[in-house]
Amino acid sequence: MELTLDQLKQYDGTDPSKPIYISVKGRIFDVSTGKSFYGPGGSYALFAGKDATRALAKMSKNDEDVIGSLDGLTEKELGVLADWEKKFEAKYPIVGSLSA
Description:
This protein is α+β, with helices and mostly antiparallel strands. The chain is built from four helices and four strands. The protein has a single domain (2-97), classed as Cytochrome b5-like heme/steroid binding domain (Flavocytochrome B2, Chain A, domain 1, Roll).
């Protein structure tokens, strides 16, 4: 399955009949089993239905960082992102990818 960023927004947890998706480095993860974290009211709800790549790398919860850009990230931040990616891969199924 390929989704655009606009289509990904539909999977933000606000519609209980749809799964919750988060994109990391262009891959879309179904994080529905982590609903308490990623669903409405959860501590990471701002990532739901979005590309959280930069925010995860920077350990940021700022809206302006919830994007896919890797521009200007430090080696340390890229390492943090790699760790997050491994955690997501171990915990959540990959259901698709982001298209341009």
